[in-house]
Amino acid sequence: MENLSVLDERRDPLLIAERWMKDGRTLAIATVVETWGSAPRPVGSHLVIDTEGNFEGSVSGGCVEGAVVAEAADVIETGAPRLLEFGVADETAWEVGLSCGGRIKVYVEPLG
């Protein structure tokens, strides 16, 4: 059986971003910067996304990843970072699945 720390390193979004950049991929990184209520990932959680829409990591346990990946494509293309907000009071609350009462802010920025 493989060492758990080796498996954790393979899944670490920051290490994956480093490998992807060495492979010549253009990336964006999404970082949880604020949460309130029942947000499933803590501040500092990361999601790394490439131009093909491949991603590793998590900013919400699946609730908003699709929306973040879509926004990341534009961030990569324009080079302009942005702050995304999701939550119950937001018009996308039911669309992205944060109907349980939480709010989350995710900062998406280009890498490299």
TrEMBL record:
<feature type="domain" description="XdhC- CoxI">
    <location>
        <begin position="20"/>
        <end position="87"/>
    </location>
</feature>
<dbReference type="InterPro" id="IPR003777">
    <property type="entry name" value="XdhC_CoxI"/>
</dbReference>
<protein>
    <submittedName>
        <fullName>XdhC family protein</fullName>
    </submittedName>
</protein>
<dbReference type="Pfam" id="PF02625">
    <property type="entry name" value="XdhC_CoxI"/>
</dbReference>
<dbReference type="InterPro" id="IPR052698">
    <property type="entry name" value="MoCofactor_Util/Proc"/>
</dbReference>
